[in-house]
Design goal:
With 446 residues, the protein is an alpha/beta fold. It contains 16 helices and 16 strands. It is globular and about 75 Å long.
Length: 446
């Protein structure tokens, strides 16, 4: 199939490259000429495992990039809209979605062949039918369902492993205004014959995406609420508690040969210093806001967000057990990305942690294997020292705060043990062996 993808962020570029890998003829569209040129050179403008390799193999063959949306839509059968939907705290910003819908509609006015427009951006339930579809009809002078199709195909990609997630999906949700639209989407994913499909309307497809992210965020905040209680009660370690929870038959299955398989969702049933990223915080807040506007009492989701908002402060409270004040204390923050294997710092708990440390007067050093540059744009770079290596970051520190689960940080016990005066280590992800540190604090342990 000839496919155009509008937007070359995590979702758009990964989707385009993976679809090209499945044999489709794909053109990616972006207004940023520099990004387009980088793609043409086979260079991914984002840090995503496996993406560079896909670009090198398919650019110039089944994959190309352009700034010319008109040419891309005219030359393809289906368009995926994968532009950003920023959140202002009250509602998602649809300006990019609206603009692209108008532009695609204007092209469809001059196109005789039937074309399918599919929203892949995360938008609140009802957006595709009440915002995108009318704009397409208005700009094209044509009728949806008769002259073109309109669908909704949410993504379920995890940053850092997005390529793997796309190539081995656990489900494919096909939303559309009619059977013709859904059938065309089904054809797009013909290379995944054994993957469960949900064929539904656009509004339900949109809700599936929000519900999926909201349940993950809820599991994290539930774990953190339990961690808070463990800390207060004393003598209880939340890591042991969650290990016991994970062994329930709901999460761990015993195979006939005796092997145990633990469900991946248990990774969200772990206590830590908070969730971040471009999806969970925004999507939970947007769904809660839509509920309020619709007159539905949304009690759980606001609580999920409030628990998450307070988690960075927990790190400083644990640090306060060892220092009466932080003014002049040399503190190293390990990890700036919201999760490992990505350079995305959006809503990362590391950012408020650094800001709180600076407000308290601490001398802050930060280190992340790939996310230092984007973090430096959001932090007062003149007040934060960015280290070039883990060893450099830890040297001379009086306290070390682990914020991101980078595997590199497993070397911390040896580095700390070799220091003349070992720093206090605050484990914000509970990934370190607490018995290997002279001074250790962790989320959910007294």
């Amino acid at each position: 199939m000839r496919v155009s993808v509008v937007g070359t962020g995590y979702v758009g570029l990964v989707s385009g490259a993976c679809l090209a890998d499945k044999g489709h003829d794909v053109v990616c569209v972006d207004v940023d000429r520099e990004k387009v040129e980088r793609i043409h050179r086979g260079e991914a403008p984002i840090h995503e495992e496996g993406l560079d390799d896909l670009l090198r193999r398919h650019v110039g063959r089944g994959l190309r990039a352009t700034t010319d949306l008109r040419e891309a839509v005219l030359g393809t059968e289906l368009t995926l809209v994968a532009v950003g939907t920023p959140f202002d705290g009250e509602r998602i910003d649809l300006r990019f979605v609206r603009e692209v819908a108008r532009q695609i509609g204007a092209v469809l006015r001059d196109k005789d062949a039937y074309h399918v427009v599919v929203v892949k951006s995360t938008v609140v339930p009802g957006t595709t039918d009440t915002v995108v579809l009318p704009l397409l009809e208005e700009a094209s002078g044509k009728r949806a369902g008769r002259d073109f199709g309109v669908g909704m195909n949410p993504e379920f990609l995890t940053e850092g492993v997005a390529v793997s997630d796309f190539q081995r999906p656990d489900r494919i949700v096909l939303g559309g205004i009619d059977e013709r639209t859904i059938s065309r989407l089904d054809e797009l994913y013909a290379a995944f014959p054994d993957v469960p499909r949900v064929r539904t309307n656009n509004k339900t497809a949109e809700m599936i995406k929000y519900a999926s992210n909201s349940v993950l965020a809820t599991l994290i905040s539930f774990s953190n609420e339990i961690a808070g209680l463990c800390t207060v009660l004393g003598g209880v370690d939340v890591a042991d508690v969650m290990r016991g929870v994970h062994l329930a038959q709901y999460f761990t299955t015993r195979l006939p040969d005796g092997r145990a398989i633990t469900a991946p969702i248990t990774s969200f049933l772990e206590a830590g210093c908070g969730f971040g990223g471009s999806c969970l915080p925004k999507d939970v807040a947007a769904l809660a806001a839509q509920g309020r506007e619709a007159g539905a009492a949304m009690r759980l989701l606001p609580a999920v967000l409030e628990i998450n908002r307070t988690q960075p402060q927990r790190m400083l409270e644990l640090l306060g057990r060892h220092f009466p004040g932080l003014r002049g204390v040399r503190v190293t923050v390990l990890g700036l990305a919201f999760k490992p294997d990505t350079d995305d710092v959006r809503e990362s708990p590391a950012l408020p942690i650094v800001r709180l440390l600076l407000e308290a007067g601490a001398e802050v050093t930060a280190y992340d294997p790939v996310a230092a540059e984007p973090a430096a744009r959001l932090l007062p770079a003149d007040r934060v020292r960015f280290a070039a290596s883990l060893t450099q970051a830890v040297a001379g520190a009086q306290a070390v705060l682990l914020v991101t689960r980078w595997s590199e940080f497993q070397a911390l016990p040896e580095l700390v043990a070799a220091m003349p005066t070992p720093p206090v280590v605050v484990d914000g992800r509970r990934v370190l062996d607490k018995t290997r540190f002279a001074r250790y604090e962790g989320i959910g342990v007294s």
